[in-house]
């Protein structure tokens, strides 16, 4: 069973047919798809810069959130140490003659536990803020990346339309380019 021609053979054959049928085609008709591809390439480069920046910001924010969670964990460990210490002092001195003498130390230990609880709340809020910032920047990165992909598809379509001179391919390249531009705008405004 014989297989059909490969896709690149179809493009080459169509381009050759158009070349022979229009040996002196209008230069402006050839330039429009080429200019479209060039403009889409510029937008793709701009989108790539935006996407890389947003990805870097997302990583940086996540790193700061991780630092805050490590700080939170350190405060939790210290809180637990003071809590256990107060429980041990209380258990060893409860109902004894030394209970009154150890009361200031016990109060100091309990005060430290409360202080660490308060400090942890601020640290937790900061960590959650950085996590949200990281998610926001990652969403921006995703929008920019989608725009880049659409620009690249538009570049390919414009290039192929230049070879085969199908106007609908050029129109489709413009549509994907507008889609890519919309993705960049949404990413910038978010």
**Helices and strands, in N-to-C order?**
HHHH
User: Are there runs of 5+ residues with pLDDT below 50, and where?
Assistant: none
- The count of DSSP E runs of length 2 or more, i.e. the number of strands, is 0
Give helix % range. Answer: over 70%
Q: Using only CA atoms, what is the Rg?
A: 33 Å
Short description:
The chain has 190 residues and is mainly α. The protein has one domain (32-189).
Structure commentary:
The structure is a single chain. This protein has four helices and no strands. It is an all-alpha fold and 190 residues long. It has one domain (32-189).
List its salient traits.
190 residues; mainly alpha; 90% helix
List the helices and strands and how they pair.
Elements: H1 7-21, H2 27-93, H3 99-164, H4 167-189
Helix pairs in contact: 2-3, 2-4, 3-4
């Amino acid at each position: 069973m014989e297989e059909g021609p490969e896709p690149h053979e179809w493009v080459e054959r169509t381009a050759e047919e158009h070349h022979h049928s229009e040996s002196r085609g209008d230069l402006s008709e050839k330039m429009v798809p080429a200019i479209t591809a060039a403009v889409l390439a510029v937008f793709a480069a701009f989108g790539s810069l935006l996407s890389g920046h947003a990805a870097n910001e997302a990583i940086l924010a996540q790193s700061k959130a991780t630092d805050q969670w490590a700080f939170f964990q350190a405060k939790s460990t210290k809180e637990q140490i003071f809590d256990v210490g107060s429980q041990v002092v209380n258990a060893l001195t409860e109902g004894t003659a030394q209970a009154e003498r150890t009361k200031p130390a016990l109060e100091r230990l309990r005060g430290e536990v409360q202080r660490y609880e308060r400090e942890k709340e601020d640290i937790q809020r900061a960590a959650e803020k950085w996590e949200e910032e990281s998610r926001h920047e990652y969403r921006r990165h995703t929008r920019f990346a989608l725009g880049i992909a659409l620009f690249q598809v538009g570049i390919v379509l414009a290039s192929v339309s230049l070879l085969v001179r199908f106007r609908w391919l050029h129109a489709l390249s413009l549509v994907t380019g507008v889609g890519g531009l919309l993705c960049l705008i949404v990413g910038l405004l978010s």
